[in-house]
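Quick one: structure for this chain?
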Amino acid sequence: MAHPLDEVCPVAIRHESVRLIDDASLSIVFTSEKPSICMLYDKQTGQHSVYCIRKIRSDEWLEMSDKLSNSVSSMHNLSHRLKNRVSAWETTKGIPQHSGSPFVSRPNSGTSSNSHYQQQSRSLSPMATISRCQSPTVSPLLTGNPWLRSTRLHNSLRNLSTNTSINTNNTNLGTLEAYHSVNPLLCFDHVWTDTFTSQQETLNTGPASKVFLSDDLVGRWYLCYLIPSRSQLSIVHIEFLNINLPSFGILTSISAKDAISIPHLHMIAILEHSGNVVLYSGLTVVGKLHVGGVLAQHAPSPCIMRTLPQFNSPFPRRSTLLPHYGTPKGDPIFDEQILSPVLPIVSPSRNFNTNIPLQVDTFKICGIDPERPQLNGLRDAVEDRLTLQYSDNTFYRIVLPALASSTLVENCLNALRQTLQRDFAITLLTRWYAARNAPGPDDFSLVQEWNMFTALIYELLGYDNDQSSDMPLESPLTPSSAAKKQRPSSLGTDADWNSLLESDYHKHSSDQLSKILHLHTKVDKTVTFAKHSEIQVNTNSILFPCIRVIHYTLHLVYEELKLNIVRTEELPYLGQFLSKLACSLNLKEYVIYYWKDFPEHCSLNFTNPTSISSNNLKNTIQWSIMSEKPESIMEHIYNLLIDIEVSPFPYIFNVNERSKAIVQLCGVYIKGSKSSNNGICLDNLINFVSLPSSKIDPFSTPKSKIIDTTQDIAEKVVILMTEMGITSRDLDSFPSGINFLLHDALWQCRENPPADWSANAYNLLHRPDLAAQTEIVKKSKLEANTKKQIMACNSSSSPEVLPTIKQVDDTEQEDGMEDINSSLLKLRFPEDHRVLEARRLLQSSKPVPIALVQRPDVSDHDFIEEQEKHLYAICARTMALPVGRGMFTLRTATPVVTEPLPLPKLCLSGKAPPRGVTVELSHIEYPQNMQQWPLFHNGVANGLRISPDAHNIDSTWIIFNKPQISADMEYAGFLMALGLNGHLPNLTLLNTYYYLSKSNEMTSIGVLLGLAAAMRGRPNRVITRMLSIHVENLLPPTSMELDLPQNVQIAALLSVGLLYQASAHRHITEVLLAEIGRPPGPEMENSVDRESYSLAAGLALGLVTLKQGCRPSGLSDLNVPDNLHYYMVGGNKRPLEGPQKDKYKVPSFQIREGSTVNLDVTAPGATLALGLMYLGTSNKALADWMTPPETEYLLDFVRPDFLMLRILSKGLIMWDEIRPNRDWIENQIPETIRPFCMVKPSPLSSDVDYEAMNQAYCNIVAGACFAMGLKYAGSANHEAFTTLLHYCHMFTSLTAKSIAELAGKPTIETCLNVVLLSASMVTFRHLYVLAAEPRLVIPKDVITGRMCYAGLRVVHLDGSSSFLRGPCLIPDLNNLIKLSIEDDRYWSVIFERGRNWDQLL
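Got it. Here's what it folds into:
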């Protein structure tokens, strides 16, 4: 299977020809995903084979299908004959007939080759169909196959006999036919088979118990598999010249008891039958492990070491410095007998086929107890650690040492591994690993390890130890050197004289002796090295042919180290070594070059013959790039600065990467600053050194990159630095000159860098603020539920901005505003206590004080009634407070999902001072349902404080918050609030049905409005069906009538408008248009609250057709504007249309309307629907429909309060013409009525209806103020606020004047409320949440992570600018062109249209 949901299909195998795998003797012992190969074991031949796993090709499938078609037809005939024989047998024996395979009747899914070829596997790799792990456990390929039994099918078909069960063969035939009828998807392509010949087939070999891939220290890969029956580890070399078809080399076998790969060290640990653990790197022996600190019974017997001939060493055993007590040492060390740098005097071909009886004989010779615990397993290799498993179930976890401890030696080894031929490199690395980790102390210093490394290099180059000793005498030597130097010369050497010169006695007495003996020549104390003599080099040494390559490679490493000031102390050691080699190679300019750098460590003595003869150098490897003049990275960059033509700097992959980066960066910046050509090719600045044995992937050819210098070259350099992975830490390690050069490019871009850079580029500029902002934008794009936020600096949901909702122990103290006292509001309003004062005013959970004084003439009973009447008047204010509290606490906190959301009480009682007597409404009459909607709003306000980004708001938590006591009103409002914040869709459909089926009016309203608000503008079929149940015209005419409350139907109508907002859905538009003028029903239906129903239908229609009036939305044949105008101005009733038209043929028995449209019902909704439909279109014709009548006669045909709605709709249509001044409002008043507005009646104008004129004036002004408030809502426009405040004062002053009687005090109060509402601009009660947008800028200090003050500059579309202090609310983004942080304490952050404006949206 390529996927768990796919059909089980057969696998094809290609070995000379293509066929299906139907051989039960094959089993899979190993799989690998990279490379995509597997190893199969053939039980009959005893051989292991490797196959590439790939998808089957179409031509292979056609070839295989032709073969299968012939075989299937023959199997049909054979199956028919067998069925007849079975039937006869069952008739005579009376045995019930055995049913065939259930897979025989399976339809053939692969009859067409084209259909098969088009199938696509869901697997990312063909290897996914076999296994996701590299388990070596033997898993039979077909044992568990439902089509095949334990016998081999092709043998059972070929060798049918009388003693074979006919039923079994019949079943196999059916399953085989079904097996062949399924299309294979994968093919095993044969690559390699092991080379064991027929003379070994007599052994019961068995499959491999462990298979793994391993690489050596020079990058060669090997396939290793352990065969327990042969006690051998087979290793075969793999070449990946073609990733789809690897090639295999010669098979090599090593006698092994167990083996395991150590990928971190590029080695293999092999457990020999003698109990020793030997390290191999590929086929090269590294050494034998010596593990200290084990128990006595687990320590290897020294008798084995002395007896086995392959472990004998010609060198004396060096005693270890490890103690025999205390805590065992964690790192293992190596036995010097095997890890000596000089090869042991044994046969070059190691005895890989050591027989198992050798182990037994050894035990007999040594007299070892066979019951002694033996090391029998290696396991759990992780990085440089592995576990030793003993036969008594004892385990030891050991850590293998690293290749080197100092970075200098590590860099040199890596460089030589890259440039030397692989055979030379593997010898160097293995010899170094053995010499470095020989028994003894392993905590070498830099000097000690470097001297050990150079000594090994000298030895492998063939230097005589006496001639190559340019180190102090106390330098540690290699093990072989130590053996040769155990008997010092009695004649003495120059090193002895140097030792005397370095002694303390000479330092104290040299000056005095010179004066006494009158010695004028003073001995140079700094020269502590022996004078060079003629060098004797063994030209047959293994690395001597590579001496020039070694010198050139390490010279590039030397130049690389110059670019890192942190590693300056390592340069003298490498320079001294290179000076020695250069002197030997007669490279005088190199010698002078090193002496100029470190004259204290390098010598310029050319008097003695110190070079290797030219005849010996003829056979060394030379590269064409090598010259007599040394390469200097500093000189190269200096020549670039002074505009001298230079040749490309040499570059070797993975040797001098830093040099390549510096040369390219400096070259681009210097040349790009001086010239304005089209571009600079980066590859032309460096010279790629092609190695004879390149280890670079031949299939990955780097593409040449050209830098465009016509643009800002500094920005190009910064981008290039980011692509190279250079960080600020790397810049600090560059030499000062290069550091200044690159920082010059950085400083040019630092103040105002491009907005589309990555966070790494901004960090390189030391702009963590922009880097944090980039991460926020990147994160917001990945998260689907992330809302639009504006953060000047680093901003994420932190406890300071969105605190967790606090749980108050005393429920009496809960007021729903516990989270308001946050650090954000303290920063926004630091100069006063307005936040605390607003909290006090909006508090509705505590009894209000009833501060009345009982007069002497008032009885106690009358005083109680007076107190309750006063309380009743205050309750009107208290019941309105939840709406304001919802705005105050909107999206301010996140709930704790393990606790219910605290619900503040709506307290309608009072306290009478001084005794605090409770006053309740118990002696006066008041509406019993007075608290119904206030409690609903209290629940909405409580739910609105939940942030839309709150997590884990699921169906379980929503149900968990349902109160146990009777609080359905608050919970209904809570559900609506969850919808407004986008969380209600998490409620499961079953729970939604439960809430709607309870027939609770308020709960149904909350659920319907909440779901529609959450899915606003995204029509959903499930929610549409839910709403259709509550809207009669959305149901078919034959549907059953439901007894639904009128308020639920109104909520459903408005929900339809929200759900289909701006969709111009034809059917929904047609239904809502008809609902505006729905007549009263024949009985009691549609006779109550018709005005609210029609208004809701009009608003819903306006939402569905929002801004669609002048667009071709497919509604032209419905004549929506004409019908709405008909409902607005009146006329004769038109015939009913729609699915429910037959229901209203009979007129209502309760309401008699006549033959004309009832404008009192239809006009408000139709007027607002037209305004929303043509919002912002500036349609003059529609605007003229909304213009107030010019004459007194026409004013009599319009209800005064309808003029308010018409002016409002006109403002919506002419949205762009609204201006925030009094002139615009006064221009909405007709010229004919202005002289008669708010003036005393004149006796000369007795025929003027002053009441109509003044009522029209007040409503027109109120409607214009409402439109202005909508236009400038949340913009903090001071001019608009001043204008609205002026008219508020005007209407307030009119209430105390007699002139107010001209319009009527109710009209004045209504208009005053509208104007006050315009100033605060809150519409549709809680539906204002849908219009709320995040425009709060919260600057944060990226260093401390805390909010801070910062100056902001806002530039409007008209070019005007204003300065704010953040945190603050900024104006509408649609009216801005630029927003920037301008503060002396912080870097400037600029958001500009057309540049990075989308980060604010």
